[in-house]
Amino acid sequence: MTTLLGGIEAGGTKFVCAVGTGPDDIRAQVRIPTTTPEETIGQALAFFQAQMREQGPLAALGIASFGPVELHPESPMFGFITSTPKPGWRNADVAGPFRRALKIPVGFDTDVNGAALGEHHWGAAQGLDTFIYMTIGTGIGGGGLLNGRLMHGLIHPEMGHIRLPRDPQKDPFPGGCPFHGDCFEGLASGPALEKRLGQRAESLPVDHPVWALEAHYIALALTSYICTLSPQRFILGGGVMAQQHLFPLVRAEVRNLLNGYIQSPAILEHIDTYIVPPGLQDRSGVLGALALARASFASSSAP
Amino acid sequence: MTTLLGGIEAGGTKFVCAVGTGPDDIRAQVRIPTTTPEETIGQALAFFQAQMREQGPLAALGIASFGPVELHPESPMFGFITSTPKPGWRNADVAGPFRRALKIPVGFDTDVNGAALGEHHWGAAQGLDTFIYMTIGTGIGGGGLLNGRLMHGLIHPEMGHIRLPRDPQKDPFPGGCPFHGDCFEGLASGPALEKRLGQRAESLPVDHPVWALEAHYIALALTSYICTLSPQRFILGGGVMAQQHLFPLVRAEVRNLLNGYIQSPAILEHIDTYIVPPGLQDRSGVLGALALARASFASSSAP
After folding, report:
1. Which in A294, B101, B169, B286 has the greatest CB count within 10 A?
2. How far apart are CA A58 and CA A137, in angstroms?
3. Are A117 and A150 in contact (CB under 8 A)?
4. Interface touch B163/A266, C-beta < 8 Å
5. pLDDT means over runs of 10, chain B (303 residues)
6. CA nearest to A133 within chain B
7. What is the CB neighbour count within 10 angstroms for residue A103?
8. Which residue of A has its CA nearest to B260?
9. What is the DSSP string of chain A?
10. Is the separation of the CB atoms in A259 and A222 below 8 Å?
């Protein structure tokens, strides 16, 4: 018997909703624009209700959401998006309407933790207990597993907002983050690249100097994460990392910056399998939502 | 019945060895200079053997060691110090001689993970599952618990070696780390302070501008760790942090740098209990070693 699951990759521009059992068995999928919580959540709910009439009951739903989000189950705001600047979504209850209407377990986490869990179940992080999944695109964020469980802590990581060294002589762009100026996201997100260049980056040739600069910032961030929590692997997704030629540049620069200090064969000898693209390609998000559903079902049916 | 434990805070200048059951019951303690592995380990072993004759059997021994160390139990080098520059200690087996001679379970981890575990059992981190213990002194290092278990991952964290932004106009000192120049340790360790100033820092008045600079670098590092793994608390120990006047400076600068982005009451309202000195004062290390012993005994006697 297969366990039918629902998943929502809840992004700031669209909600991708899917029903299925895993990567090879997605039975239905729909994209809903992110407008107001009432409208978007209403449409998503209608999709799952129609699917349940058609395909039978869902064991659980998983929601991998843009954030920041409240992840403490004991909080009255659990399952809410909290302090987002996105109009209408501040303090929006995302998980609650689904839980109340569908009456099934609802797993809820950040978009990047969801993607990380998807990669752990079916992708490039199988068998690892401490790794990082990052998206480098419109924004920069990271999630992952620490000692076998999703990264939570005080709230949840906001990996894109670490401060990096910037040499104003080599890169006069002051950064585009409204909170921190030249933090990692402020320097290296897709919009930061575009603002620095005055044009979109993806049409530039692979030997344009901006790619070496971009790889340098990504490598600075990765070395910081390596020193901070010693992950067993990095999985780098998102629109910017769709530029596959960045991978060898990032790998070489990580080794250059660490300068032999971290004596691990994973870094010194096998960096090609240490810093990798998502095993699930651009489906980490929606499959991650299904993985959250699966985990929620497993914990709700545990003795 | 009390469980008698042995602990070694194995540092680069001295091994502090203790026998007892916890902070209020240390029955014997000795300091042994760190010379060669044979001599230092031999003296430590003689101390514990004498104690066992006098006080009765030890349930387990814990070793909180300087590093880098090998922490993977399946590695043939488990319990070794690995790539240290300290003469004679490269690839030195530290845990093995004790395990073979004393025939009791030996817990082995980094000095900072040991101290973190001590703070978790008896100090300022009781009840937390994700927090960081840092020492800022001769070197800078960090350990802690992630999701309830000690930080390991690929090898173990090397938190002192993250890169930080440095404005050469405000701080022309290029940093003292032989691997990375102006990484956190290179900028903010005790020796870095002394090298920058041309004198030891502790005799300087509390309003000397170097303290604001030091607090700025520490706060930059802490905000990076907050964004990376969202700890529930920071415990800051070590010789530099013995300058208690640094705490309010660091707390204010962390808030300043985060700029309201991390919406947690722990940071926005209660930062005095978010960034704190060790609850065990300068005994985190040796009590941490006892905590490692306790954990090793508990896991060896688990069903």
Report:
1. B286
2. 32
3. yes
4. no
5. 90 96 96 97 98 96 95 93 90 97 97 97 97 96 96 94 97 96 97 96 94 98 98 97 97 96 93 98 95 94 72
6. B228
7. 9
8. A179
9. ----EEEEEE-SSEEEEEEEEETTEEEEEEEEE---HHHHHHHHHHHHHHHHHHH---SEEEEEE-SSB---TTSTTTTEE-S--STT-TTEESHHHHHHHH-S-EEEEEHHHHHHHHHHHHSTTTT-SSEEEEEESSSEEEEEEETTEE--TTS---GGG-B----TTT------BTTTBSBHHHHHSHHHHHHHHTS-STTS-TTSHHHHHHHHHHHHHHHHHHHHH--S-EEEESTGGGSTTHHHHHHHHHHHHHTT-S--HHHHT-GGGTEE--TTGGGHHHHHHHHHHHHHHHHHT--
10. no
Q: What is the pTM of this model?
A: 0.96
- For the sheet containing B25-33, what is the strand order? B25-33, B14-22, B5-10, B60-65, B106-110
**b/e burial code for range A262-301 (CB count within 10 A of at least 16 → b):** bebebbeeebeebbbbbbbeebbbbbbbbbbbbbbbeeee
Q: How many residues does chain B have?
A: 303
SS3 B272: helix
Let me know if B242 is exposed, middle or buried by CB neighbors in 10 A (0-12, 13-18, 19+): middle
- ipTM, interface predicted TM-score of the complex: 0.95
Residue B128 DSSP one-character state:
-
* Å between A55 CA and nearest CA of chain B: 37
Mutate to test the interface with B, among A227, A232, A257 (most CBs of B within 10 A): A227
| Interface touch A154/B230, C-beta < 8 Å | yes
CA–CA min distance A76, chain B (Å):
15
- CB pairs < 8 Å spanning A and B: 145
CA distance A115 to chain B (A): 17
Any residues with CB less than 8 A from the CB of A14 and at least 6 apart, and which?
A31, A32, A33, A34
Q: Do B158 and A130 touch (CB under 8 A)?
A: no
Q: Contact B180/A228, CB-based, under 8 Å?
A: no
To the nearest whole number, what is the mean pLDDT of chain B?
96
- Do the Cβ atoms of B62 and B298 come closer than 8 Å? no
Per-residue pLDDT in tens (0 to 9) along chain A, 303 residues: 579 999 999 999 999 999 999 999 999 999 999 999 999 999 999 999 999 999 999 999 999 999 899 999 899 999 999 988 889 999 999 999 999 999 999 999 999 999 999 999 999 999 999 999 999 999 999 999 999 999 999 999 999 999 999 999 999 999 999 999 999 999 999 999 999 999 999 999 999 999 999 999 999 999 999 999 999 999 999 999 999 999 999 999 999 999 998 989 999 999 999 999 999 998 999 999 999 999 999 988 876
Cα distance from A57 to chain B (closest Cα, Å)? 33
| Closest CB to A146 among B83, B146, B220 | B146
pLDDT tens-digit map of B203-224: 999 999 999 999 999 999 999 9
Beta bridge mates, A134: A142, A236
Q: Please indicate whether, in this complex, the C-beta atoms of A154 and B259 are within 8 angstroms of each other.
A: no
Q: Of A161, A229, A262, which is closest to B229 when you measure between CB atoms?
A: A229
